[in-house]
């Protein structure tokens, strides 16, 4: 019985990992790499007319960080023709007051108060904000850029968006975690996961011209693209009832024919280090909060998106849809595999077939580790590969537990037929970021 269980798990892991090796092959065959930027290219960016960019930030109980996020980003963004529009709720006065105080310091910040008390869903609040912007209440615009209340925006992000939207209606910028000093912290797991996803997977999606999901932050859409999506979704940009309205946005944009691109670029500094034009943020550091966040992602991507979007497109697009959605199976199987290790030790004599399967799985694990470490090293200069290895079981436990919780939450929501509400995550901002009020600028 134990031998059959081990055999089943070994075969399942091999099958579930086939798509990862397919991506590795494409990256190797096509020499896909993040794009280094030359000084000449930066100079060309500076010559381009600046399109009007509205940065939309939905906020629910973010009074502790929203002022610092706005002030810090306003100080560093190297672009002139832009404006922050921050959405909040009538029953969240501390957040509104925090936004209003910054709006008195500069005309580049405006507050939007939702008609409904919060929390509704993130998609619902953003849809109301988009409708208000599209109506011209805040003036004309060319591009909407989506961000969250904890985001640190790279100074050149808007210039990159301004340049890339000349050839695409949907632009996604990379998202990376800040480096976490506590290397065995749950928050550190996001470091390697986003490093691999945003320096490999999304590059392959871009190369194959398949659907590029929105990360929810660092996502830019032109006015024409927004109008096309709204037309296809009864006047709404986002699916308000989906927990991952951002993911569905990117998939839907591809389905209806909007051109997409993933702009993964970096500047080479004098000391040869890479400065990534990417959104940075801290992710949940506790095991509990990490599981809660990932359960929301899994529920929205693997279950709700299937209901809403189904399977469509060419073979490569369907493979990526499978890759997105297989986590509902692969994550819990990872926990089962960890729990089965003691059973493996009880097998007195391992049959040859099982030994070959285990050896093959071991090689696959080594390959995946090397790929992830290579991606990680591109973003983080520290050579702490040993912690990366130790974090593998932690990542398996977090993702596996999140998979079980996602299934449970989805079944409960289906039985009760309850709408998806905003799943609040506690956020933090780097120490010292945006501490001082904006001097010398007043609203008009």
Descriptive notes:
With 444 residues, this protein is of the alpha/beta class. The protein has 15 helices and twelve strands. It has helices at 2-16, 18-30, 39-47, 66-76, 93-105, 122-134, 157-164, 189-208, 223-232, 245-255, 287-309, 315-325, 327-345, 352-379, 385-416, and strands at residues 35-37, 53-58, 82-88, 109-113, 143-146, 170-172, 175-177, 219-222, 260-262, 265-268, 274-276, 279-281. The strands form three sheets. The protein has a seven-stranded mixed sheet, sandwiched between helices. Strands 1-10-11 form a three-stranded mixed sheet. It has a two-stranded parallel ribbon with strand order 7-12. Helix 2 (18-30) crosses helix 8 and helix 10 (245-255) packs parallel to helix 11 (287-309). Mean pLDDT is 92; it is low at 440-444.
Would you summarize the structure shown here?
The protein is an alpha/beta fold and 444 residues long.
**Percentage of helical residues?**
40-55%
Total beta strand runs: 12
Low-pLDDT runs: 440-444
> Which oligomerization state do the chains in this entry correspond to?
single chain
User: What is the rounded distance between the termini?
Assistant: 75 Å
- Secondary-structure-derived class: alpha/beta
How large is the radius of gyration?
22 Å
Beta fraction: 5-15%
